[in-house]
Amino acid sequence: MNERIVVGAALYDGGRLLAARRSAPPELAGGWELPGGKVEPGERSEDALVRELREELGVEAEPTGRVPGEWPLPGGYVLRVWTARLVSGEPRPLEDHDELRWLAPDQVWSVDWLAADVPAVEAALALPYAAH
């Protein structure tokens, strides 16, 4: 099985969802997404999520559950999302992002989400609050 998977984190802290604004590549710059990245060959998706959040945001996070569904991305990739909680650190944009925002429930749609992330965010928000 040679799947090309990108993992994303619906990272919550105090009921707020973290959104990350892309700075690269140019065709995605300025769009907002759930932080995450590509799963490396032989890597478990949950492990990739933890690694990517460490690399991109400088935080330790713990996946808490899989968001049902998967969404196609350009280049033959598929996006899979997990809810996650912040374990330690304060998120800061280290790679491929130039801004982060913690969004309260009434602010989630105040940013311009990348088209591929919109259904993933909707699915994450549809989970019971206890799942966050």
TrEMBL record:
Q: Which domain of life is it from?
A: Bacteria
| Any Pfam family the entry gives | NUDIX
Q: Which organism is it from?
A: Streptomyces venezuelae
Check the record and name the InterPro entries matching this protein: MutT-like (IPR047127), Nudix_hydrolase (IPR020476), NUDIX_hydrolase-like_dom_sf (IPR015797), NUDIX_hydrolase_CS (IPR020084), NUDIX_hydrolase_dom (IPR000086)
UniProt keyword annotations, A-Z: DNA damage, DNA repair, DNA replication, Hydrolase, Magnesium, Metal-binding, Mutator protein
This protein is called what?
8-oxo-dGTP diphosphatase
Q: Which reaction does it catalyse?
A: 8-oxo-dGTP + H2O = 8-oxo-dGMP + diphosphate + H(+)
Co-factor requirement: Mg(2+)
Instruction: List where this protein forms a coiled coil.
Output: none
Q: What are the GO BP annotations of this UniProt entry?
A: DNA repair; DNA replication
